[in-house]
Specification:
Layout (H helix, E strand, L loop, with lengths): L1 E3 L3 H5 L1 H11 L5 E2 L2 H4 L16 E3 L4 H14 L3 E4 L16 E4 L6 E5 L4 E5 L4 H8 L4 E2 L12 H7 L6 H4 L6 E7 L5 E5 L10 H5 L8 E8 L1 E2 L3 E9 L2 H13 L6 E6 H11 L8 E9 L1 H16 L5 E4 L3 H12 L1 H6 L3 E4 L9 H15 L3 E6 L7 E5 L6 H18 L18 H4 L2 H14 L13 H4 L7 E3 L1
Parallel strand pairs: 3-5, 4-5
Antiparallel strand pairs: 1-20, 2-3, 6-7, 7-11, 8-12, 9-10, 9-11, 13-15, 13-16, 14-15, 14-18, 17-19, 18-19
This protein binds flavin-adenine dinucleotide.
Length: 482
């Protein structure tokens, strides 16, 4: 993985930068001891690591503004960080950067049930947003499987999704406004507690911008009434292709489950072993959940199970209790952790048209044989967001490179069948060099011109999203292989 050479002039200014940062932040919010900065050396894409020059932990928007102003004046790159759960390397530092972590910014600032909104500091974890309102019958819908740990900051930066986003939409559909600090320290308000405002849709630009345009410090989020009830049904099939065809038929029928999740045999086994969810052992498993009143649930499930029966399921079981439903979801949500117990892995995130699921699953199986690396599949099948998990041995020389090649071929296939490189994890460094397969030079130029407006010096997360060779003229530092 190629990263820019650290700027030696910036490294030489470290002492002065640290002193200036200590002038605007409490002493324990500036971390420059190399032993301590190692805590920030990677995110959840652990194959790549690099401790930052300094890490800072501001607690307010004003402190973030001060930090950015100083880094702007000193020409120091800044990598924003939420909880560091990115699977795309979005929060990976460079050796000459300041990591700006928002973990201390986790307050609820305002809750407005009449208008169904909540305003939070963005270091707050996803699950604790729901935690703040659930006793009053509300919830925050986007539910990444990492929701116990990941922060709203990272969710906004990556436009994160989750199992239940088939019905409720992803982060961008549930985000109403942000406070954004630009690289020169300017604080701007974008959107707010109202529906789409006039002017350019800057909120749409900020959501999913991967820390390229500014640091998001506060967010206004839509909260929803909890549904009356919900029930998952487990459907087992004797092949991934048949399960894929069943998903395509459910979507085609016009019924909208709240979630359709897919797991293949490898994932069923590791998740069962980890979470004891009582999954049926089969080649491919779908978890389909519907919600509403008892009558609505029964109606929807009748239609969905009739479709499933046309595909000769080897198992078909509705959850019989709230406790069983919890177990079913605990298994699915633990999928990445569960496979992490048995192998090093790289998690891909391509999205494809749902109708292409059977073909793409077959091709991934063929590629697995070609590259000699096992692959497990678990994904949000309802919206075609695939997560092939390629297993490799981090201690075996050359295995990571084979894994990267395998991953690149899968993602290129996603683009070829009419999909895209990322559904919810973002580009980061992982898919950065594949962006030329998705976008023509003029398309990339238009995206980089937007960054020019927000961050003219290209100091914010500069080695991510855009292929290094393409962004090189905008960055002054030379490149080197790591
Ligand atoms: C086990 C596991 C399961 C996962 N499941 C899902 C899933 O179901 N759906 C999904 O979408 N993702 C999933 N992810 C990926 C990850 O959790 C999400 O991308 C998440 O939104 C990252 O949040 P974070 O706070 O950890 O961000 P980080 O990893 O800290 O950062 C992610 C990106 O956001 C930028 N950023 C961070 N803070 C700010 C800020 N304040 N302002 C501007 N930019 C900022 C960073 O620079 C980086 O580019 C999973 C990850 C793991 C490890």
């Amino acid at each position: 993985m190629e990263m820019p050479v650290p700027d030696s002039a910036v490294l030489a200014r470290k002492a002065r930068v640290v002193e200036r940062l200590r002038g605007v932040l409490p002493a324990d919010a500036v971390i420059d001891d190399p032993a301590e900065t190692r805590a920030y050396e990677c995110d959840a894409l652990t194959a790549y690591r690099c401790p930052p020059m300094v890490a800072v932990l501001p607690a307010t928007t004003e402190e973030v503004s001060d930090v950015l102003r100083i880094c702007h004046e000193e020409g120091v790159p800044v990598v924003p960080r939420g909880s560091g759960t990115s699977l795309a390397g979005g929060a990976l530092p460079t050796a000459d950067c300041v990591i700006l972590g928002v973990a201390r910014m986790n307050d609820v600032l305002d809750t407005d049930y009449d208008n169904r909104i909540i305003r939070v500091q963005t270091g707050r974890t996803n699950l604790s947003v729901t935690g703040a309102v659930e006793s009053d019958g509300f919830f925050y819908a986007p539910d990444p499987s990492s929701q116990l740990a990941c922060a709203i900051a990272g969710n906004i930066a990556m436009n994160s999704g989750g199992a239940h986003c088939l019905k409720y939409g992803v982060t961008t559909n549930n985000l109403m406004g942000v406070t954004l600090v630009q690289m020169d320290g300017t604080v701007v308000e974008i959107g707010g507690g109202h529906l789409d405002a006039g002017g350019l849709d800057l909120l749409g630009v900020i959501c999913g911008s991967e820390g390229q345009l500014g640091v998001v410090t506060e967010a206004t989020l839509r909260i929803l009434h909890k549904p009356e009830g919900a029930r998952p049904v487990l459907m087992g099939f004797d092949s991934a292709e048949v399960a894929g065809a069943c998903v395509a038929d459910i979507i085609k029928a016009g019924v909208l489950p709240v979630a359709i999740e897919f797991m293949d045999k490898m994932l069923i086994e590791v998740c069962e072993d980890f979470a004891k969810a009582d999954y049926p052992m089969c080649e491919a498993l779908l978890i389909v959940e519907v919600e509403g009143s008892e009558a609505e649930i029964n109606d929807q499930l009748a239609l969905i199970t009739a479709i499933a029966k046309r595909h000769n399921p080897v198992a078909l079981r509705e959850s019989a209790s709230a406790e069983e439903s919890l177990r079913i979801w605990a298994g699915r949500k633990a999928a990445f952790s569960a496979i992490g117990r048995v192998s090093d892995y790289m998690c891909l995130d391509g999205t494809i048209p749902v109708s292409e699921l059977p073909f793409v699953l077959r091709r991934i199986g063929e590629m697995s044989e070609k590259y000699g690396l096992p692959v497990g599949n678990v994904f949000h099948a309802g919206d075609g967001n695939m997560h092939p998990l390629i297993c490799y041995d981090a201690n075996k020389p050359g295995d990571l490179e084979i894994c990267e090649e395998f991953g690149a071929e899968v993602l290129k296939l996603c683009v070829e069948v009419g999909g895209c490189l990322t559904g919810e994890h973002g580009v980061g460094i992982e898919k950065r060099d594949l962006m030329t397969h998705q976008y023509a030079p003029a398309d990339l130029e238009a995206q980089m011109a937007v960054k020019d407006v927000f961050d003219a010096k290209w100091l914010l997360n500069p080695a991510k999203v855009f292929p290094l060779a393409v962004s090189e003229p905008r960055r002054s530092v030379p490149l080197a292989a790591e």
